Amino acid sequence: MTIDLLTIQPHQISRDLREKIVVIYGEPKVGKTTIASQFPKALLLAFEKGYNALAGVMAQNVTKWADFKKVLRQLENAQVKKKFETVIVDTADLSYASCEKFILQREGVDKIGDIPYGGGYKLVRDEFDTVLRSIPMMGYGLVMISHAQIQTITAEDGTEYSKTVPTLTKQPRGIVLSMADIIGYAKSIEREGESKTALFLRGTQQFEAGSRFKYTPPVIKFEYEALVKAIADAIEKEEVEKGQTTVVEKGVNLYAEEEQLSFEDLKTEIKDLTAKLVEKQGANVAKKTMNNLVELHLGKGRTLKDVTESQVEQLSLVAYDLKQTL
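and the corresponding structure tokens:
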């Protein structure tokens, strides 16, 4: 990436939902994935298959953290950037669980706590944080979906109260919520004798919600167009207040099962790819390239000889990145 500070221009905020980071959480079956799929040119990364009733959704099943990282490699492609503008992670909870499993396999332990001095928790946190933040850094909008749970909160004076929050555990919740421009809580409510779904955009003592936009209303209909209008109106009100100019922008299941190679097949594939790498780069440079890839995916000081069958996911990433190098 070329950096030239003299070419920097003032950041402009779009009135639609492009490039926004949004968290939507709520009760089951209220339409979280449906709303998310209506974001501009959305790609659904399905850690759970909750899109069966959504005709036309562009979805990629993700069963492992290595799958997620392979998707990220492709998101850097210029042709992919033309096809998609928003990435949906459904659910953020399951993505974190797969990240933790990936670290367990890479470090060769059964529990994160087995890594001394809290080091395992930091490894998972850093991996999850780095990967998630790379998506908006590539210019995509990001929508993260979670479910809702009620937690007991203890106030500073010792009193306790109940609060509805995303089902994410404390560590990933801190990462996800700190990234978000908009945190919306979707809830079914009874109104005029019928059940309707509302999206709460301003937090209270009873539930987690919030927005970076000063004039976002506290609650709206849980509809995509209502959310677009609420954010556009909020931005325009702030624009008038500050005298700023804001640019106005206009607001099939792709999953194919990837061939799952066995541990031995992967080792053979990497051996063949390494031979091609030596032909392309020469022995010394190829050795350095391989060492960097192995350290990236298996940990510092590791070699391919150290790999066990439980680390097939990490090995698949070594093979994947090798292919991109050739």
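(Above: one complete record from the training split.) Residues 71 and 149 are 30 Å apart (CA to CA).
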